[in-house]
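Hi X.,

You mentioned you wanted examples for the new student's onboarding notes, showing what a folding record looks like when two proteins sit in one file. Here is a clean example. The first protein comes first, with its sequence line followed by its structure tokens.
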Amino acid sequence: MAKVKITQIKSKNGASDRQIATLTSLGLRRMHQTVEREVNDVTKGMIEKIRHLVVIEEIAEKVKAAKPRAPRAKKAVEAQETTPAVEVQNVVAEEEKSIEA
């Protein structure tokens, strides 16, 4: 849904009780206060009733990009696996033992 930024620019002094209640229900309590609201039929109607007291700005929706995840730590089993260099050393050590025997 689209969002709008609503800013009260005129005082509610002299406004009707219904207009004051509409400002309150939108979350506006004082002059120059700004709130963000989703645009739907209800908020459109509220804004229409108090349009002389507020300024409306449309907010462009931002698309959130997925955060890249940090690489996971290796499991204990993966950490114990030998590398090719270690395997070569093990094979050489075994051959030396077999030659000596």
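Then the second protein repeats the pattern, sequence line and then tokens:
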Amino acid sequence: MGRELTRLGEALRAALSRLPSGSALASFPIWTEWADVVGATIARHARPLRLRRGVLLVEVDGVEWMHELQYLKAELRVRLNKRLERPAVREVFLALAGTTDDASRASDPPRRA
């Protein structure tokens, strides 16, 4: 029964430190609304992995789709930024599935370590 009391401010600081940063939260729609923004067909073949310094890494499941999406990168960037209501994505980088060393999966939103 020797439970140690913690001040509310300390508990809140600890809890808030585990949350994603403000910019990561603001970019959350990239993951939650991906299919709505890019369309169901593209969403079946391409998944966002991470957004870092304005570069969105998108994993594509085949070379045919990678080739096709090369032509659509600018349009996808515009659509994503419109949905985010800010210019968060300055570049879309495509990677063939299985070739990235990124541990996060497509459906996982950004997390703070």
